[in-house]
Design a protein that fits this description.
274 residues; alpha/beta; 5-stranded parallel β-sheet; 3-stranded antiparallel β-sheet; 6 helices; 10 strands; 25% helix; disordered N terminus; protein transport; TIM50; translocation; transit peptide
């Protein structure tokens, strides 16, 4: 992780890649507001919730945090907000289009957002997705066999599978989207170098500075905001847990999931082409 990251620099105004096709034929100039890009295009940052921004403790494990004061109590859970969490979210909003994608159910997300983002900041999120928008692989986590293994397929964002996303189809792709998740298996279906997997925040720690102004994550994201594209930057600046690839020690297990959903995708393509 001892990699020197590029300094934050002034972003250039980026014109739409199709602008060269817009030519004045002498009769009129047809430039839509969508093509008239008056500022830099922000990359899309997709954040997980538990393990990155908060630590959730189920009631059956409350003894593990005995004597500590949670930031929120709801249902069977105690919630501890990670230090610098609210300031980190503000940092992200200033540099990126930001969405939140958790693998917990949506009714549990609602109880966390105000605590995580701060008053008024929740509305700045481009979307809030939960378990319902994940893919249930039908498999279970290797280290926690009672936990279902959910996948986050970024194509659902890029292809606008849901109509409430606030951008046009094709605006985001593998070139300008980054998923941040503490569980590498969530990115199994995505193109290489479109995600980073920081080590999870597993226990309340007031001295944790990971999301802080001098933390590694902010330095990484400062550089990413100015990078030409996401995959080349992520490949050059390795971060956290490695992605799950054929060189992974448990690939024999994860490859079953990749093959299973690769087959379903192929079958779906064949059915739509008929």
């Amino acid at each position: 992780m001892a990699v020197k990251l590029p300094d934050l620099k002034l972003k250039n105004v980026v014109s739409d890649e199709n602008d060269e096709d817009e030519k004045d034929n002498g009769n009129h100039l047809d430039i839509s507001l969508e093509k008239l890009n008056l500022g830099p295009k922000k990359k899309l940052l997709v954040l997980c919730l538990g393990g990155l921004l908060v630590h959730r403790v189920h009631r059956r494990h409350w003894d593990s945090v005995q004597g500590l004061n949670p930031d929120l109590c709801y249902g069977k859970f105690l919630v501890f907000k990670r230090p610098f969490c609210t300031e980190y979210m503000q940092f992200c909003f200033e540099r990126f289009e930001v969405g939140l994608w958790s693998s917990v159910t949506e009714h549990n997300i609602d109880g966390l957002l105000v605590s995580v983002t701060g008053a008024g900041m929740k509305n700045k999120l481009s979307f809030v997705w939960g378990q319902e928008e994940c893919i249930d692989s039908g498999f279970h986590c290797l280290r926690k066999v009672e936990k279902p293994l959910f996948l986050k397929d970024l194509k659902r964002l890029w292809e606008k599978k849901y109509l409430d996303l606030p951008w046009r189809r094709g605006q985001y792709s593998s070139s300008n989207t980054l998923l941040i998740d503490d569980e590498p298996h969530t990115g199994l279906l995505n193109p290489p170098n479109t995600a980073i997997f920081p080590r999870p925040y597993k226990r309340p720690d007031s001295k944790d500075t990971f999301l802080g102004p001098n933390g590694w994550l902010r330095s990484f994201l400062d550089g990413l905001a100015d990078a030409d594209d996401v995959p080349s930057y992520v490949k050059k600046h390795r971060f956290g847990h490695p992605p799950i690839t054929p060189s992974h020690s448990d690939w024999h297990y994860y490859s079953k999931i990749v093959r299973e959903f690769g087959k379903k995708e192929e079958d779906g393509d064949k059915s739509t082409s008929k």
